[in-house]
Amino acid sequence: MCGIVAYIGKKEAYPILIKGLKRLEYRGYDSAGIALLSGGNVNLYKKQGKVANLEEFATGKDISGHSGIGHTRWATHGLPNDINSHPHTSMDGKIALIHNGIIENYDSIKEELISRGYIFKSETDTEVLVHLIDDIQKHEKVDLVEAVRLALQSVIGAYAIVVLSKEFPNQLVAARKSSPLVVGIGAEGDFYLASDATPIIEYTKQVVYLDDEEIAVVDLKEGLKIINIKNQVKAPYIQELEMHLEALEKGGYEHFMLKEIHEQPRSIKDCFRGRLNAEKGWVSLGGLKDYQQKIMNSKRLVMVACGTSWHACQVGEYLIEDLARINVEVEYASEFRYRNPIINEDDIVIAVSQSGETADTMAALELAKSKGATILGICNVVGSSISRITDAGSYTHAGPEIGVASTKAFTAQVTVLTLMALSLANRKGTLSSSKFHTMLSELEAIPDKVQRILDKNDLIEEIAKVYKDASNALYLGRGSSFPVALEGALKLKEISYIHAEGYPAAEMKHGPIALIDEEMPVFVIATKGTSYEKVVSNIQEVKARKGKIIAIVTEGDVQVRDLADHVIEIPDTDEHLVPLLATIPLQLLSYHISVMRGCNVDQPRNLAKSVTVE
Ligand code: M6R
């Protein structure tokens, strides 16, 4: 939530910042702003709306400067208008600051500062920080770094900040706590700072991920120095980025979401590459190897996540319980962290997160860790906060996901959880050898089957045309297709703003059936398997109330075809792997409906990709 980017060096800062903000726009797009140090002045440009608005606003103005900071906002405190946009400046305009996070005690700090004569322009929590730093600097007669350090000691909450001051033109000061921040080390003695590596990758692959309560000082004369807020010096740990620039471009697709949907044959393959060999009957998740025994012996696994990742965990629960016979509990991270959960030292708590930065998921993990549980992570973003605080974990290797609606991250998460379930089942002996081998082969065949579904895009687009004006939609599924139904409903509502709900098919008659009439599209996952006949009965019940049925069926199905208004066939596979296939047509349906309704597919209203506030 909120993206920050900064540059100091010999290059012009503005083009780097604008490009960086566009890359970070998925983190929030309520407003954007830039502050540039030019000719000894801090020049400020801020605009409500997207980065493109800011760009237009800055056209023709003085955008020179070799040092600057930029911000794209997801509003928390105060309306998304020009004034509340970042950067915020000190009253004398000497200091400018950008912030991602929430200052929880901003009210009390603000009151104190007002009593000392500070005048606030915005309604944001962030503005207190810039005045506080200014105040400390003036009264304590300290330099910028020390003022930032002392200011952060008074702050409760989450922050990633970058501060620029005209009194220290060779320097930018950055810090983080619970919100991500990466430092890029350029080849020409220049430096980049950003919420994630996407704005940096084009210029350097050498990065340092800051840890909580660390302050990075990038100085054109003295280089990079890292201290913590207790003033202890830390040695920077420089890492080499493995990301590629092409992964951040649309590559000819109209939207990132469409590109990411189409990437799934590859992303699923990347996810199991080196971890699965059907021919040799072998599966292993290297990152979890040291904990395999502990997981096998544990009485329960607790999975914590939010949104789409929570749906992936639900699929994981079905898989691990059924195949490996280990008790799994899936929790919304936001609920888990506040409900005084019972956590024992022999519990294993697994966080699943695309971004690896979701505030609630992080907090749930921290809570579990404080109670002595083993904490593991399944993340997509390499070097993310969750991947760094966990005892061990597995990356999903889906590549950067830019569209706010999660697609390839979901199938990659489900793939990792499937590998985990299979590996545990094999070691525990809860799966027969022949079933284990068959499932490995079936999993290896999934990418090609996903491709076959993607090839039905035209059919899916035609169906989308029929339902694009619906006001409500129901999604039904049973077993591990129930979380797929939830995920289908989430995709539709978040990008097309159609109200949609996912239900276990049999639950429909306990309430939602009252909603069904001839206007109501009901998307049903009715693939071959244990509950097939039951789902057929549920379809009959919808039919009897004149609901419109769009069914996802196994290739060759005739029974549902006779009942449904539309069918989308997916290739046959092992029942446990159906979620990896059944989710694809639902993603495409939502995508096309969103486009037809003229919605912003990649950046739906009110949302942000990475939810770093609670
Ligand atoms: O980065 P995470 O996987 O932790 O994010 C969790 C949710 O915020 C995320 O899945 C959200 O629900 C997506 N917009 C769904 O498409």
Report what the structure shows:
With 614 residues, the protein is an alpha/beta fold. It has 3 domains: 3-247, Glutamine Phosphoribosylpyrophosphate, subunit 1, domain 1 (4-Layer Sandwich), CATH 3.60.20; 250-455, 3-Layer(aba) Sandwich (Rossmann fold); 456-614, Rossmann fold (3-Layer(aba) Sandwich), CATH 3.40.50. 36% of the residues lie in helices and 24% in strands. It has 19 helices and 27 strands. The protein has an 8-stranded antiparallel sheet, covered by helices on one side. It has a 7-stranded antiparallel sheet with strand order 5-6-7-8-12-13-14. The chain is globular, with a radius of gyration of 25 Å. The structure holds 5-amino-5-deoxy-1-O-phosphono-D-mannitol.
TL;DR?
By secondary structure, this protein is α/β, with parallel strands linked by helices.
User: Which molecules are bound in this entry?
Assistant: 5-amino-5-deoxy-1-O-phosphono-D-mannitol
Number-wise, the strands total: 27
Biggest sheet statistics = 8 strands, antiparallel
The CATH superfamily of the largest domain is known as Aminohydrolase, N-terminal nucleophile (Ntn) domain
By DSSP (H or I, 4+ residues per run), the number of helices equals: 19
Structural class: alpha/beta
